[in-house]
């Protein structure tokens, strides 16, 4: 009995502790093509490894709902699959566009990028890499694409220093909010908090208020030129409340288990 109580209490404590942890935000260093991570709660910074010895420059980074990590090369427009554990890469295919900026994947697995040359929103086929132009946003430069938890597409107009929302049907800008500081690259965590970096030297890790455009510095990063961010959010995992309920159910089963009838 005591052993069961201790075991259940240990599991419950672990589940609650896990729920309090932050999300792991992945980033890519466009200068050295290094994959890095930032813990959104502790702000711990880790270099995972170098993506490739090939002359590529990843300008777009995103996780699919299945947990697969993808990257887009700015110059060639090639789409790559990236293993976030050993940082090995595999070529999937060419988008058919060059100077592509940003990569965002919604909860249904639809992928989008931007063509800096044509100023168009692109729909990207994750199986083949081939991209199709949707429409122009008519802004100077829009980068750092990312979906929030309601599948609304955001980007950063880096020249005008604006946070913009983009229509995935027309490619046009729906709304824009002036930012109080420089930002490049976006990442929403599982709680819909918005993070960014400023592409400075040293790089700063930032928190953004998507309603007001307020920018708050969270930390300095020992790296420069992070081109894009990504968070593994849409992969189905048990909710913290469900995990806690499971632990409490175990306790209830122990205390209120059926006892043998006395004769």
From TrEMBL:
The keyword Transferase does not apply. Keywords: Signal. Residues 1-19 form the signal peptide. The keyword Signal applies. This is PEP-CTERM protein-sorting domain-containing protein. It comes from Rubripirellula tenax. The lineage of its organism: Bacteria, Pseudomonadati, Planctomycetota, Planctomycetia, Pirellulales.
